[in-house]
Automatic annotation (TrEMBL):
Cofactor(s) listed: Mg(2+)
Protein known as: diguanylate cyclase
GO term, biological process aspect, one: negative regulation of bacterial-type flagellum-dependent cell motility
GO molecular-function terms, A-Z: diguanylate cyclase activity
Length: 391
């Protein structure tokens, strides 16, 4: 996963965002439709229930009108108009009645399978009573038939219509709930994918880049040792540590006649020499020692808790090891030597790192002047061996 390119990660991110956007739009559309259909179902169920009430009221008002109540006649008429209007809405699949509701097909089927006929008959009887005269034999006949319909068949049928809508609404809501869970699951999976497939590799990459940047800022690219700034910072940290009371030995090491190595064998061979020298220093140092390449062919070492004498011995060993190093394949007759200057930093010696480096540099200069391939200490000559004598 860490090997993914930035472009691949961006594509993944776009796909993940696209999936979430699709899920969001889809659930929004579904929710809108559910709300509309749910509203429709509730309205139809309420209208169907109201039809039952209206049919009962029509039957009751017809009774009272038969007893001579003019007011009942007026109520009968108004209820009948409303009953008929709502019946047209509920029983037809067109115009004003084209409501959206889950149970619509099944409810319409109920109207077709007899309920419609009963309601038409009920309306016909009610109209005859509305336009008739109480006491008329035909009036009494219509009233009897109307009562019979209003008592049983009409309420049963209309209740069936209402419950069809309520039940259909419930079933649909259950389905919506399942769909909602599925959408939620998809969104969570996409988020998991984002976390594992996008953000984790991105964070790893950022951490890697941060390490690389850190390395570039603190390491010398050719040798892998500390650069000058990092060397100084590390030595300062050792010197300023609360437990550090002992001396820190500082060594300045410089390749002899490096310019002529470059001139004679080329810069590539010069680089090989520096790389091998860096690797050698890296190999011989104890943990806690600090090595840096602080100039072109100039290296510095800091050896904490080491006396000047100890550092001189170590420098002498190092000088001999370098002189004994095998020549690079590219330059079999090349003989590399180094000169080293030693100084001490701490109580009784140089008070600052800059001062210690200056003294070590002075000693190094003396080693060069005295013939190279030598170790000189800031205080006294420690390696009186003649140049190249041990090489
Ligand atoms: N190949 C290579 N050469 C470098 C690098 N950095 C510096 N140099 C060369 O190192 C040489 C240093 O030469 P000088 O300072 O005259 O010293 P020297 O020839 O070693 O002479 P002494 O120090 O007196 O023994 C210069 O020619 C630089 O161009 C590097 O990274 N790679």
């Amino acid at each position: 996963m860490t090997g993914l390119s930035s472009r691949a990660l961006t594509y993944r991110y776009i796909v993940a965002l696209g999936l979430i956007a699709v899920c969001t739009v889809f659930s929004h559309l579904i929710l809108g439709r559910v709300l509309r259909e749910d509203d429709g179902s509730a309205a139809v169920a309420a209208m169907s229930t109201r039809q039952i009430v209206l049919s009962e009221r029509i039957a009751q008002m017809a009774d009272e009108y038969a007893d001579g109540s003019a007011q009942a006649h007026a109520v009968l008429h108004a209820s009948l108009v409303r009953f008929e209007k709502e019946y047209r809405i509920l029983s037809r699949d067109e115009g004003e009645s084209s409501f959206i509701a889950y149970g619509k097909p099944r409810a319409l089927a109920l109207y077709r399978d007899g309920l419609g006929q009963n309601i038409e008959r009920f309306i016909g009887l009610a109209q005859r009573i509305d336009g008739g005269v109480p006491g008329d034999p035909q009036f009494a006949e219509s009233l009897r038939a109307l009562r019979a319909l209003a008592r049983k068949r009409l309420p049963d049928g209309l209740e069936a219509v209402a419950s069809v809508h309520v039940r259909a609404g419930e079933v649909h809501l259950q389905r919506m709930e399942i769909l909602q869970h599925i959408i939620l699951g998809v969104v969570l999976l996409v988020l998991l994918f984002e976390a594992l497939g996008i953000f984790r590799p991105m964070i790893r990459r950022i951490v890697r880049y941060a390490r690389q940047l850190q390395d570039l800022a603190t390491r010398d690219v050719l040798t892998g040792l500390c650069n000058r700034r990092e060397f100084q910072a590390r030595v300062a940290a050792v010197r300023d540590a609360p437990v550090s009371t002992t001396e820190v030995a500082v060594l300045m090491l410089d390749v002899d006649h490096f310019k002529s190595i470059n001139d004679r064998y080329g810069h590539a061979v010069g680089d090989v020499v520096l790389t091998r020298l860096g690797a050698h220093l890296h190999g011989v140092l104890r943990s806690g020692d600090i090595a840096g390449r602080i100039g072109g062919e100039e290296f510095a070492l800091a050896l904490p808790a080491t006396t000047r004498d100890g550092a001189v011995k170590m420098a002498e060993r190092l000088r001999k090891e370098v002189a004994a190093m095998a020549a690079p394949d590219e330059a079999p007759d090349l003989h590399v030597t180094v000169s080293i200057g030693v100084a001490a930093l701490g109580p009784g010696a140089a008070p600052t790192l800059d001062e210690a480096l200056r003294r070590a540099d002075e000693a190094l200069y003396r080693a060069k002047r005295n013939g190279r391939n030598r170790v000189e200490s800031a205080e006294e000559t420690s390696s009186p061996a003649p140049a190249l004598a041990d090489g």
